[in-house]
Amino acid sequence: MFEDHINHLNQVFQVIQRSRVTLTVTKCHFRYQSVLLLGQKVSRLGLSTHKEKVDTILQLEEPKNVHDLQVFLGMMVNFSSYIAFYAWIAGPLFNLLKKGKKW
């Protein structure tokens, strides 16, 4: 399994070299079981949410005005792909952002 991984890395590096792409060593991650990239955890299982980000949202107070709701919905954009029927669930919240809507 590890030898397969090394062979795959060699293939990737050959393609990178042929295409004249340069890599920044400090931005390369090797032999990690998982790594955080752009706020998402990437592992052999695929993409998942980062616990600290979920905890931050769970600790937010209930939105009391348009600004608070905008902050909440802005944070939720990162998680919308993990939530089934997100548009349907968040629809009433987005409706509250419309001009003239009362809470």
Can you offer a commentary on this structure?
By secondary structure, the protein is mainly α. It is built from four helices and three strands, in the order αβββααα. It has helices spanning 2-18, 51-58, 66-76, 86-95, and strands at 34-37, 40-43, 46-48. It has a three-stranded antiparallel β-sheet, with no helix packed on it. The radius of gyration is 20 Å and the shape is elongated. The protein starts with a helix and ends in an 8-residue tail after the last helix.
Task: Lay out the secondary structure.
Elements: H1 2-18, E1 34-37, E2 40-43, E3 46-48, H2 51-58, H3 66-76, H4 86-95
Antiparallel strand pairs: 1-2, 2-3
How much of the sequence lies in strands comes to 5-15%
Roughly how much helix do the residues carry, as a percent range? 40-55%
Distance between the termini: 57 Å
Enumerate how many helices there are, as a single number: 4
Radius of gyration (CA) equals: 20 Å
Provide mean pLDDT, rounded.
89
How do the strands of the widest beta sheet line up side by side? Answer: 1-2-3
Structural class call reads mainly alpha
Principal-axis shape? elongated
